[in-house]
Amino acid sequence: MNIFVCIKQVPDTETKITPNGDGSYIETSSIKWIMNPYDEFAVEQALLTKAANSGSTVTVVRVGGVKDTEALRTALAMGADDAILVEADDNLDSYMTAKALKGAIEKSGKNPDVIFTGKQAIDDDCLQVPQLLAQMLGMPSVTVVDGCEEAGGKYTLKREIEGGALEVYEVTSPAVIAANKGLNSPRYASLPGIMKAKRKPLAQHSLSDVGVSTDDRRVKYSGFQLPPEKPAGKKFDAMDEAAQAGVVAEVVKLLREEAKVI
Amino acid sequence: MAKVLVFSETSGETVKSVTFEILGKLAGHTVDVAVVGDMGANAAADLAKYGAANVHNLKGANLDQYSPEGYANALKEFIGSNYDYVFAGATSLAKDLMPRLAGMFDAGMASEVTNYVMDGDNFAGTRPLFAGKVLAKVELDGPKPGFITVRPNALGMPEAPTAGAGATNEVAANAGDIKAVIKEIVKGASEKLDLTEANIIVSGGRAMKSAENFKILEDLAEVLGATVGASRAAVDSGYAPHAMQVGQTGKTVAPSLYIACGISGAIQHLAGMRTSKVIVAINTDPDAPIFTKADYGIVGDLFQIVPLLQEELKKVL
Ligand SMILES: Cc1cc2nc3c(=O)[nH]c(=O)nc-3n(C[C@H](O)[C@H](O)[C@H](O)COP(=O)(O)OP(=O)(O)OC[C@H]3O[C@@H](n4cnc5c(N)ncnc54)[C@H](O)[C@@H]3O)c2cc1C
């Protein structure tokens, strides 16, 4: 089986994000980058699928900055077999990213049986790439998946919808599957894994190598700015039991008369 | 003037309220609405009341139940070259469907905008990025139509409905080839509005100490007509299912009132709830970061405050 995983490198969730000078994007110089948290579930599911199907390979693909290949090395250290990096800016839109991923997968010469992705990148929060990629490759897609069972190229997938309900899908490969938190417990890269990862093949392409040009941009961003800060709120001390009833009554009154939300 | 279509979800007679929010913001433009599958007569009437010029009801084999490919195929044919923009609420269904549809048109899509203007023929939206740490202006380029999803509760309900013509038009639609089929829908634990759509949310953190203790939050939520949420610490400790998690790796919510009980206010939690209109925090630690975001902070023990709050609200609601 040819298993692919698409991953992205994103700023660590603790990182302070500030707009750059002209507001065209964010300041990227001092950011600590990590593998997109949802992609860890995708990598793990790819490795589980490989383990259940002997003779399979896992190829991990990333579109992004060339300086730092950390996320790809992490995936290789977890157990992926080879990696592809498409060299690009970090602020491509979803359409360009999906087109680049498609180009890279096709260039690998391997026909994908299944493609795993995270459900969403936590930087642009778009939730578009898995569906766009599936559409471009003529495959079905199932997103926000937190249950995945495979048997003979057939997948039974659980997808969370409103109110905690689940849709249970049946899909025949090839398909694009976008992982949600809860799908599995991603493994840590072991020390031998990290050593081995250094010798695993990592192919590099430019955007034009995979057929993407600036004409493919569909979404234009500008005016990056910090959200307006809220004015300081009102704080009440209710540690003392005697004060509690009064404070609660006051807050309820404010919610009704000042904030007008109840 | 731009030709606009709003894709709306209905369940029987009920229309998701985000559709009305979108229609309200498009008042003054000629806007059609498309509904796929069964739609009640009252739902159609409500859509007209809020400004739909035409309500197109797409019907056909395999369209009674959602499937990404079936809905996308049916809508693609219907949209054709008739519209400049297609809007939808950012619900689980539309977030899954709309990118697929955008891909069919090789078109651009703006996900989960929290505001927008239609300036003549041009759409310009505002959307949070990096889990709400920054805001940016978003515009679309390339082939038409442009696709847009709007975060529920972000725009607010229109003050008064603006009646459209609202003629209902049944359209024979084709689901085409479907490779990913839903075999079953497992009902969720909650009949309540989903967190992403809820107008009021009561959330509990690690301080809840057990799944059983969430009962006091459920009781408070009952009085308020609220949905219960949780922090990741509460979810990871097994006090609440992941579907209830609010935050960067949980749900992004935008209720009018968010009550955080025993939640410290870690940056990843704030990312999911900071756009709540009014925030109430209950925490024993007067220096908890959540208080810097709270409109009303109560320094106190949630196990004492929450029941009192419930009693007080019962009196006034
Ligand atoms: C990649 C990543 C993603 C993450 N995603 C999320 C996410 O989506 N959502 C999320 O919530 N977190 C997320 N986190 C975790 C986040 O960093 C915090 O660990 C988490 O939010 C803490 O939850 P908490 O506030 O419930 O617990 P704590 O930080 O332990 O806070 C508990 C609070 O309860 C107070 N308290 C204790 N007893 C009482 C009492 N009796 N009455 C009132 N108050 C009391 C304490 O003073 C304290 O402030 C993420 C972390 C990472 C690294």
Record the SSE blueprint.
The complex is a heterodimer of chains A (262) and B (317).
Chain A: E1 2-7, E2 9-11, E3 33-35, H1 37-52, E4 57-64, H2 70-78, E5 82-87, H3 94-107, E6 114-118, H4 129-137, E7 141-151, E8 154-160, E9 166-172, E10 175-179, H5 191-197, E11 202-206, E12 219-225, E13 234-237, H6 241-257
Parallel strand pairs in A: 1-4, 1-6, 4-5, 5-11, 6-10, 7-10
Antiparallel strand pairs in A: 2-3, 7-8, 8-9
Chain B: E1 4-7, E2 10-11, E3 14-15, H1 17-25, E4 31-36, H2 41-49, E5 54-59, H3 68-79, E6 85-89, H4 92-104, E7 109-113, E8 115-119, E9 122-129, E10 134-140, E11 146-150, E12 167-172, E13 180-186, E14 200-204, H5 214-224, E15 227-230, H6 232-236, E16 257-261, H7 267-273, E17 278-283, E18 296-299, H8 302-316
Helix pairs in contact in B: 3-4, 5-8
The complex binds flavin-adenine dinucleotide.
Give a written overview of the molecule.
The complex is a heterodimer of chains A (262) and B (317). Chain A has 262 residues and is an alpha/beta fold. Chain A contains six helices and 13 strands. In chain A, the strands form two sheets. Chain A has a nine-stranded mixed beta sheet, with helices on both faces. In chain A, α2 packs across α5 and α3 (94-107) packs across α4. The termini of chain A are far apart. By secondary structure, chain B is of the alpha/beta class. Chain B has eight helices and 18 strands. Chain B has helices at 17-25, 41-49, 68-79, 92-104, 214-224, 232-236, 267-273, 302-316; strands spanning 4-7, 10-11, 14-15, 31-36, 54-59, 85-89, 109-113, 115-119, 122-129, 134-140, 146-150, 167-172, 180-186, 200-204, 227-230, 257-261, 278-283, 296-299. Chain B has a seven-stranded parallel beta sheet with strand order 7-11-6-1-4-5-12, with helices on both faces. In chain B, α3 crosses α4 and α5 runs parallel beside α8 (302-316). In chain B, 58% of the residues are buried. The mean pLDDT of chain B is 95. The interface between A and B is large, with 88 and 97 residues. Bound molecules: flavin-adenine dinucleotide. Residues 205-207, 231-234, 245-250, 262-264, 266, 268-269, 272, 282-285, 288, 301-303 of chain B line the site of flavin-adenine dinucleotide (FAD).
